Amino acid sequence: MKLHITYDHPIPINAFEWTPATYQQTPHMHASLEIGLCLSGKGTFSFGNKRYAASPGDLFLVNHEERHVAQSDSDDPSRYLFINFDAAMLLAEEPGLLLPFSYRSTHFCNHIAGGSALAQQLTPWILTIADELKEKSPGYLAMAKSALIQLCGRLLRHYNGLLTEDERLIMVKSVHQVQSLATLVEQRHREPIGLGELADELGLSVSRVSRAFLETTGYRFSDYVSLLRVQSAKRDLTGTDKAVATIAFECGFQSLPTFYRVFKEFVGVSPIVYRQSIGSAQ
Questions:
Q1: Is the sign of the CA dihedral 29, 33, 34, 35 positive or negative?
Q2: Cα 41 from Cα 74, distance rounded (Å)
Q3: Are residues 241 and 148 in the same domain?
Q4: Tell me, what CATH number does 133's domain have?
Q5: Using CA atoms, how far apart are residues 184 and 2, in angstroms rounded to an integer?
Q6: Within this chain, do residues 55 and 148 fall inside the same structural domain, yes or no?
Q7: 191 and 251, same structural domain?
Q8: Does residue 24 share a domain with residue 136?
């Protein structure tokens, strides 16, 4: 099962607490990346065929390729704080920060033991992100994003040291290819663009760059283009008084029905409702 994630803030980061069921639920996956902190109780956290015991202070890393599910102990149910975020934000900020999440599942330990040096480094940043998004004090969006970058930077330094030189070169090359493609998409997402023409410009095969893009970001190329167009539309909806139809076509959508459908898939509400809700909140 693949879940669709919507975000509760103008930046693509969510923070939420959750208590897993005490029975086995259906594993799921999602395009977003995730870090879970066990706050209390006991249980297990499964990733495919991998199964980890969970106790307070433990951390779990989730990428966009692995099916996963947590389960609580019936006598002492676990409770988690999850930070859920969009890979596209790190791609735009510093692509290398995605490396810890570009793992091959069979060779990766998703569990970071509570009390370990790494857990002690990461936990304060997880709590900071959650606090900033909850309190919404002045500057909270920048503070939450900064804390996430600090968190992922520390993950990068840790996992970079565990890679062989060949693994590091392969992953870095893949991320750089994705960064080059993402830069072109950022520049031209308001225009009609196709993966084939951009891959030709970069001197890459369509199949190679398509696979690398999906593995690194969790997005198919077409979905990433749609994401950028929706982000542009959100800015225009709240920052201008242009008509919705004008915004749709200027942001690269070829028809109004497509714009409305894609916008609601990513944002959760229609463009008109979004404009009204942001306006009433100001």
A1: positive
A2: 10
A3: no
A4: 2.60.120.280
A5: 28
A6: yes
A7: no
A8: yes
* Tokens (6 digits) for 117: 């040096």
Residues 182 and 107 in one domain: no
Q: How far is CA 121 from the centre of its chain?
A: 21
Q: Whats the size of the chain, residue-wise?
A: 282
Instruction: Tell me, yes or no, whether 177 and 212 share the same domain.
Output: yes
Domain span including residue 228: 223-281
Longest dimension (CA), the chain: 59
**Consecutive 10-residue runs of the chain (282 residues): their mean pLDDT?**
68 93 90 93 94 97 88 96 90 79 74 95 97 95 96 89 70 77 88 90 86 78 90 90 95 94 89 81 48
d(CA 161, CA 179): 22
Do residue 40 and residue 141 come from a single domain? Answer: yes
Structure tokens at 88: 């596209």
Distance CA 36, CA 17 (A): 9
At which residue do the structure tokens 């803030």 appear?
9
d(CA 24, CA 71): 6
Say if residues 76 and 20 touch (Cβ distance below 8 Å): no
- Any idea of the CA torsion for 106, 207, 184, 174, to the nearest 10 degrees? 30
Both 76 and 141 in one domain: the answer is: yes
Strands (E), the chain: 2-3, 13-18, 29-30, 33-40, 43-47, 50-54, 59-62, 68-72, 79-85, 111-112
Q: Which two structure tokens, joined as six digits, stand for 107?
A: 């060779």
Rg, Å, the chain Cα set? 20
Strand partners, 60: 36, 111
Give the global pTM.
0.73
CB-based contact 140:13 (threshold 8 Å):
no
Asked whether the beta carbons of 33 and 151 are under 8 A apart, the reply is: no
Domain boundary among 219, 238, 260: 219
**Residue holding tokens 């249980």?**
43
